[in-house]
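Closing statement on the glutamine sub-project.
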Amino acid sequence: MSDLTKLKIAEARDLLAKGELTARELTEAHIAAVEAADTLNAYIEKTPEIALKQADAADARIKAGDAASMTGIPVGIKDLFATKGVHTQACSHILDGFKPEYESTVTQNLWDDGAVMLGKLNMDEFAMGSSNETSYYGPVKNPWRAEGSNADFVPGGSSGGSVASVAGYAAMGATASDTGGSIRQPAAFTGTFGIKPTYGRCSRYGMVAFASSLDQAGTITRDVRDGAIMLESIAGFDPKDSTSVDIPVPNFEAALTGDIRGMKIGIPQEYHLAGMPGEIEALWHQGIEWVKAAGAEVVDINLPHTKYALPTYYIVAPAEASSNLARYDGVRYGLREAPENGALDEMYETTRAEGFGDEVKRRIMIGTYVLSAGYYDAYYLKAQKVRQLIADDFKRAFEKVDAILTPTAPSAAFAFGEKSDDPLAMYLNDVFTVPASLAGLPGSSIPAGLSANGLPLGLQVLGKAWDEETVLRVSGVIEEAAVFTSQPELWWR
Ligand code: GLN
């Protein structure tokens, strides 16, 4: 067989079932691909021994006729999912050496289905960022390069390692997390498919917390079908997470009927941003034409509080982060730095000063400020109220439409350093993804075209709460219409 790393999950599953491929072969090919992709810096910890053991178990299971869809499929795991005995640091220095005693529910679900772990994936520190430049382990390189250029681009963030491993043929799928866009924006930057389900669809048990009311697990894959398969595996109620919801997980793959005739697709007028690049507008317009041609009805809708979404997010998320990150004090986890003969509070201070990176410190300071006495009502409480208005906007819109179509990000991938000195420019990346995060709604990003210089662009589909099936179905139709067959050249191998 030619390059096994280019197989999709569904293709590999079918070959494994027919006995034309073994999980061992597939895993060995991927272990080699992971080694060959070192320059991308997608993996910060490789676990080939675990992978081979899981692959052999998968082969036995397939032989016994007891395989699930993910059995024998090699995947990468974002570094914020707790993996028992394996590096779990959310790419922060403060968690140095931390190896959990327990497994996150999302990863446990994958192992229960027989998936194979290739290693832990790079990410922005504590998932704070849009370019993977805040990782303690250094930035991830986007496998894509602009036409006729050898310059490197960011892969997006915070799930930079997840998207680079999948776009770079060093994993068939990857877990990821999305607090304000960290699945969808990097998917758009790398020509991959990302889906963030409804808040509460996947368990947050064993996920390093950033902003607990927003964090949600999801997947990165090379196409929509693979996303449906992998999402179904990781999703489900978990008594260990009080915010996970006890409703059945549908057969997501079965939702890909290709039929959206008569469906109503909303186009939020507020997402026509002033100054948005023409190619993003053009891509959006193209997407509208595709769903129309497939028989859907396109409806203009209004989400009037959209312009408050970014400021609201950048109050709520840092507030929750400042509280969640208070636990890292040098006593219980990871790093401990203490001045000689120093007092206990000096140990706290030194550990936190050395353990956290600049962006994380910025969030802790903003979060502490908006929660402090005298400012709480003006910022945090106000933001909570606006968050409700944003959720209400969507509720009203979804009385009229079945899904919403927008661009995923306001630009294609950018160069390293281009925005890292300007937090506000960086935060603007999330302008189209953050509103649905605040409302807890499911959303996807589908590779839909190329920028003028040949970098991937994505379209975003948003759905009603618990209606990932419609998100997937519309995504599948856009994927089929877009015929996105471009691939990055394998320059790193
Ligand atoms: N880019 C956003 C932030 O920096 C979103 C991150 C995320 O979704 N984890 O907060």
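The first strand starts at residue 43 and ends at 46. With this model delivered, the sub-project is considered complete and its resources will be redirected to Aim 3.
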